[in-house]
Amino acid sequence: MNVRVRGIYTTAVTELFHNGDEDHAVVQASPPIRERFDTEFSVAPADVRAETTFDRQGLTLVGTPEHVETARTRLQALSRDTLAWADPAPAGAVFQGVVTDTLGSGAVVDLGDAEGFLPYDNSEQYLEGDETLVVQVRTPEPPWGSNRPTLDTALDVETDLVRLVRGGTSERTGAANLEDLLPVDPPEGWAVRWGRDEDEASMDALADALRAATDAAEDIDTGLAAADPDDAPGELVAPFGTTHVWFGREGRFALDEYRGRVTPTMPGHHRIKAATNAASAAVDFAEAICGPRAASAADGERGAERPASGAFPFDVVTRQFGPVEGDTVAIGHGKPDGRLITLGRGEVTNREPEGSITLEREMHPGGTYDALGVERAAGDVAITKFVEGRWWYATVYRGEDGTRRGTYVNVCTPVEVFPDQVRYVDLHVDVVKGPDGEVRRVDDDELDAAVDAGYLSEPLAEKAREVASKVERAL
Predict the structure, then answer these.
(1) pLDDT for 291 beyond 90
(2) Is it the case that residue 343 has pLDDT exceeding 80?
(3) Winning range, highest mean pLDDT, from 227-231, 242-246, 432-436
């Protein structure tokens, strides 16, 4: 399997695939990666493209479905809290969609098992609503994001080395085009556009790329020919698969270990880089200042570099980039199915240099607190302490007069305290303590259901049960 990698996880993932398994190789490596690794990288077609997600939380994998699955399995083996979800609207998939709503800049399109967003600039048709039209997924979105996948009515097949455009015109120069020199004929009605790495790739690699793109284009033609408007909304053809991988805290530190085999890596390298662009730049600066550490001439092991020793520098990172006392931070409550729910925002009332923050939120009256059965009253506040790396966090609800109205302990993947959001994935099982002192454990059935649905692994679920038992005994 050939993998093309881009983004903040590139060095670690390159080490994981290129040197971790002889059946895998990284291709089309960027210039910095070529300099960093003492090896050659071919400019061959990629079976999987791995790109960092918009929020730096993980990777989006796009490629042939079987290879995407292989890459997902390899990445999820990094840690218990590395989670992944297949996208129902994969990159390059073609749908018969139905317009359900029109917004200021585009239309919402029902795709069947998902919704997409079609910018008006991506359609020559005037859209009012209820139209049925053929669309293609241009930019997929991870399930924890707030955006819909971006759609287009123009159809193409885009790979790293070549792009085929349906209905496009060939870029003729008067001389023979590159595709004329290859033993592959592009499909009728599709124009060829070569990528930036064309000059570095061998003729065999270019032929392989064109052959794979041609197969995908022919699949699209077949799907369009068989389309029945009465079946809308629904998928016509999906030449490629797409899976989104989210790295938990343990996963990011596991990636640090892989990166540390290649180049100097500070504690929490990927954990810090996932926070903000400014933090990412600061990490690069700090590691550049440190410079490489030479290995002993007698040390014949590959990779003179090692991860820097020491604990994650929580105090330094939060002082520099936040959050600090007085900041407002959101609670990013990830769900096992990949969705992200924001449980409100709170003010940081305390920050401990050893690795924790305390948030205080004003609660709106009405309804009851989950599992506690206590009514929310005017003047109630929720006080939550988040400890970096802990598999649980506790929220204490207090009334206006300071009386304790209940405690809710949420069991989750290891907490990460980012500058503007606390992030984790909820593991369903929780422990509550009512105002009368009664302790109860709840939602074990939802945890079991998440395992049965394939959202959580059994080792991760077992960890959640173990944590819940310890918390229950402590309360």
Answers:
(1) no
(2) yes
(3) 242-246
Is it the case that residue 257 has pLDDT exceeding 80? yes
pLDDT digits (tens, 9 = 90+) for 34-46: 999 988 899 999 9
pLDDT of residue 236: 97
Is 474's pLDDT higher than 90?
yes
Lowest mean pLDDT among 12-21, 173-182, 407-416, 466-475: 173-182
Write down the mean pLDDT value for the chain.
Answer: 91
| pLDDT of 305 | 46
How far, in Å, are 190, 304, 305, 400 from residue 300 at the CA level? Answer: 53, 9, 12, 66
Q: Is the N-terminal amide bond of 88 cis, ω within 30° of 0?
A: no
* Identity of the residue numbered 215: D
The pLDDT of residue 92 is 97
Domain spans in the chain, listed from the N-terminal domain onward: 1-86+240-312, 94-239, 323-474
Longest dimension (CA), the chain: 86
SS (H, E, C) the chain: CEEEEECCCHHHHHHHHHCCCCCCEECCCCHHHHHHCCCCCCCCCCCEEEEECCCCCEEEEEECHHHHHHHHHHHHCCCCCEEEEECCCCCCCEEEEEEEEECCCEEEEECCCCEEEEEHHHCCCCCCCCCEEEEEEEECCCCCCCCCCEEECCCEEECCCEEEEECCCCCCCCCCCHHHHCCCCCCCCEEEEECCCCCCCCHHHHHHHHHHHHHHHHHHHHHHHCCCHHHCCEEEECCCEEEEEEECHHHHHHHHHHHHCCCCECCCHHHHHCCCHHHHHHHHHHHHHHCCCCCCCCCCCCCCCCECCCCCCHHHHHHHHCCCCCCEEEEEEECCCCCEEEEEEEEEEEEECCCEEEEEEECCCCCECCCCCCECCCCCEEEEEEECCCCEEEEEEECCCCCEEEEEEEEECCCEECCCEEEEEEEEEEEEECCCCCEEEECHHHHHHHHHCCCCCHHHHHHHHHHHHHHHHHC
Q: For residues 97 and 108, what is the distance between their CA atoms, to the nearest angstrom?
A: 10
Confidence (pLDDT) at 301: 47
Q: Are residues 89 and 149 in contact, defined by beta-carbon separation less than 8 angstroms?
A: yes
Residue 193 pairs in a beta bridge with 163
Q: Characterize the bridge pairing of strands 241-247 and 356-362.
A: unpaired
User: 407 has which bridge partners?
Assistant: 396, 433
The architecture (CATH level 2) of 323-474 comes to: Beta Barrel (2.40)
Report the distance separating Cα 428 and Cα 446, nearest Å.
Answer: 6
Please say if the pLDDT value at position 308 is more than 60.
no
